[in-house]
Design goal:
The structure is a homodimer. Chain A has 20 helices and ten strands. The first copy, chain A, has about 500 residues and is of the alpha/beta class. Chain A folds into two domains: about 240 residues, P-loop containing nucleotide triphosphate hydrolases (Rossmann fold), CATH 3.40.50; about 220 residues, P-loop containing nucleotide triphosphate hydrolases (Rossmann fold, 3-Layer(aba) Sandwich), CATH 3.40.50.300. The radius of gyration of chain A is 24 Å and the shape is globular. Chains A and B meet through helix 4, helix 6 and helix 16 of A and helix 4, helix 6 and helix 16 of B.
């Protein structure tokens, strides 16, 4: 069966560029429609031959789609808490909620598959394990979930070539472990177990999709197209309206600007920033390449040493928080970071102290948690909109300092970014969003109206920085009018902080 | 400072009986008002000298109040997942939601306190630790939480007497560990550290209450009265209406019964049950005493062996599920069981497959999880009220069987009780509730109206039993018209099943 994935198919750089751009637009569109509908869970599994691009495919999809609304996860050895519960507990607990997409590696197939490949369980025992997995998938599919399973394949020779190539490159050497060569040595058993897995568990509701893994561009397009295809079909079958061009309704544009004149004598730490700072295109490209490579290596060290990072983004609407986050995560393994977009609390969160919902997302050692907006909402939006009482937001400064102190005491590298743009820059970005077919869905009437309160927010941000810019958790103010400059500064800052911590810790 | 808790105060059995009854009514009333208001979290901590009744006090409070809406927790050594996060993460994650009470032992004071008692940290370091704890308590208190901290005290001689007595009784011998004697040997350091703890961290918002621990009756009343006192004050300060007699508004009683005539020819497994079974008072007392003692011992073995239990209760309204649960948990350490009352799902639960919210409560090894109503709601209330589509509840039987199979495969002892009462018995119980000042708040118009659908429920329960009474997870049908009979059967069944599992596993 695997001959179909050993055809040596490749794709030219040019074709890849063309096709990947439109594929990305389609995926973003479908992801957004899925999220708006909140209708079903999407579970995407990656399994297959070592070196065939399981992790790389997850990383690629995360870079194409909106990473804030993706969950990427790879199960390692069970923790003691997991071992004390039925095996599937950990799979249940990592399911994405409806409307979100989960990308998974080393999931429910992994343990029984390896046991079978090594001959530690009989075919009958393996079949029984597969039946249990099918039962799980069936339950979720019946409930409306979309399940897609990618089997990333390489021929025996191709795997050898691939592992050798990875090993010879100092940048990727670490990816090849002894166990990968062990698996290669039992390639035939490995593939026999794979064939049984696929033939027995490829169902209409949860199909396996064989992907030829040798050429990176080819496999990325294969994986992306298959996901887009199944996602579109699934949403359509659910009765969710989809237009073929990924169009969204025209965005509102007000007749006059809501921004009031700047209050006399208002001077803040933000108004003193030099937002004219720029970074030229070629400089940006060069710097980004270096910074991202640095971040990648530093994060690998941090994972090994168990040094966690918490990164906070705050700033006005359209300041470029999302774009900066995308550049941070691009060089990272999606399985070791999580982006937590902060919106209205759920009812379980409302039943607790407001800091509880930030505590709950604390990651295990060595991981990165990125908050797209954060606990600072208490002294920004909640203060201005009156969601928190005067007492509540006033005491929040001390609570937050205390909270952050605890993270730092635990050895977490905490970095807080305020990205600053001018009101004019925001106006231009809103106007550009309004006419962009890909972005206009982001823009609402309310965004325009919020400009009315620009200076209230500026004052609140000023107070926030004055009270929470501490030695252990300083604010990094980022001049944001020029996106390349801002992004480079953000990543460079993270590299510096992480490097300092790793050197000193 | 501890002389006030070394006065040798005792209380007669008779006085205890009188005072505890009215105290219990007051606690139940306050617990209910707290829950109805959903206004604040209540955190009750127990610390103190070993043998002074920390665990016993939690158990007593759990037996006095409604255990379904209590959370009891004792932190053991940190799990690997806990160690990889800031120390306070695990304290945050166990906080009761607003409207509930949490009873805690070996909490945030435990580690630094022992370090100080053993002289492993300096006084200054200990003070810094205490400041951190105070910060945590202060955050919660500012948010409206009620925090009460009990210091259970014994004099040095009393502790020696107590530990010796516990050790000499074969039933309680296990409670005394080497470490307890070690602590006794450093009694003076222990008490010095305690004094510093109490003087530095007893605040208006989170006071320490010193309790003389030698006489069980005395200390139970002390703890219960203090809790009631503070709870009442706190609720009153929040503006929550309280009446001094624990009165509730008159309960509704319909002019005519909604129960329809029994449909012709309806024969179910339930209608065949002999609901006339009775158990006399003295027999009940004798049997209960034995069964509860057995259950206590069996559960200790199960905890040691890591054998978990899942217990499910289903049955018509007023069938006696809550009463049976209270009898099960009475002899158990509240820190090793959790009661999960199933009501409407939260929004986070609604965003997942319906089984997810049952998976999430799976306990760690050796613990007991009791579901007061369960996943069977899918084929009972959701079927009858149309909350689940025909497709959904029809396929639920297989999903449930599969789910239960997984629990059993993991070695969990799963026991499912259907408590059966007759319509007449339910009528009488409703009528009795309507006039009981302590119980009439439980009764709503809807309870009466639901009698209309009695036979729909009976049919659904019949189908449920037919399809989910499996070899690995059999239903236990309990004749419920006589409460003593039902309760004895429930506990006896649990003992038998647990004993079988422990013998064979």
């Amino acid at each position: 069966m695997f001959q179909v994935a050993e055809l040596g198919r490749k794709i030219t750089k040019r074709e890849y560029k063309e096709r990947s751009e439109s594929l990305r637009q389609e995926l973003l569109y479908l992801q957004r429609r899925l999220q708006e509908s909140g209708d079903c869970q999407v579970i995407v599994d990656f399994a297959g031959v070592d070196g065939a691009g399981k992790g790389a495919s997850i990383q690629k999809l995360a870079s194409w789609m909106d990473p804030r609304f993706l969950i990427a996860y790879a199960w390692g050895p069970a923790s003691d808490e997991e071992r004390e519960r039925p095996e599937f507990w950990r799979f249940w607990m990592q399911l994405p909620p409806r409307g979100r997409i989960g990308l998974f590696a080393r999931g429910r197939y992994s343990r029984p598959f390896l046991q079978r490949a090594y001959g530690n369980i009989s075919e009958a025992e393996y079949d029984a394990e597969l039946d249990r997995i099918l039962g799980f998938e069936n339950d979720l599919a019946e409930d409306g979930a979309l399940i897609i399973k990618f089997w990333m394949h390489l021929s025996r020779d191709a795997q050898e070539r691939r592992l050798t190539a990875l090993q010879n490159d100092p940048l990727t050497k670490w990816q090849v472990k002894d166990i990968d060569w062990e698996h290669w040595r039992i390639y035939d058993q490995f593939v026999a177990a794979a064939e049984r897995t696929i033939t027995r568990t490829s169902t209409g509701k949860a199909p396996w999709i064989l992907v030829e893994g040798e050429d990176e561009n080819f496999r990325s397009l294969e994986v992306g197209s298959a996901l887009a295809h199944h996602l579109r079909e699934h949403l359509a079958a659910k009765g969710i309206a989809l237009d073929s061009e990924g169009e969204s309704p025209p965005a509102p544009q007000p007749e006059e600007d809501y921004l009031p004149p700047r209050p006399d004598g208002l001077v803040t730490v933000l108004s003193r920033m030099d937002t004219s700072k720029r970074l030229g295109k070629s400089d940006y490209k060069k710097k980004m390449k270096k910074y991202q490579a640095d971040l990648h290596l530093l994060q690998r060290k941090a994972l090994k040493k168990g040094v966690s990072s918490v990164i906070v983004f705050e700033g006005m609407d359209a300041a470029g928080k999302g774009g900066a986050i995308r550049r941070i995560v691009a060089p990272l393994d999606p399985r070791i970071y999580r982006i937590v977009p902060i919106a209205a609390p759920t009812d379980e969160e409302r039943a607790q102290h407001y800091l509880w919902r930030f505590w709950r997302h604390m990651s295990r050692a060595g991981r990165i948690t990125i908050y797209d907006r954060s606990w600072y909402g208490r002294v920004l939006v909640e203060r201005i909109e009156g969601f928190a009482s005067r007492d509540e937001w006033k005491r929040a400064y001390a609570e937050i300092n205390d909270f952050e102190q605890r993270l730092v005491d635990h050895g977490i590298v905490l970095t807080k970014f305020w990205i600053q743009i001018t009101p004019d820059e925001q106006f231009e970005r809103f106007a550009a969003r309004a006419v962009s077919p890909l972005k206009r869905w982001k823009l609402t009437e309310e965004d325009w109206r919020n400009r009315q309160k620009w200076y209230d927010y500026e004052r609140a941000a000023h107070d926030m920085i004055a009270r929470t810019d501490t030695f252990h958790a300083p604010w990094v103010l980022v001049e944001g009018n020029d996106k390349p400059f801002a992004r480079a500064k953000v990543i460079n800052t993270l590299c510096t902080r992480l490097a300092n911590r790793l050197d000193n810790g």
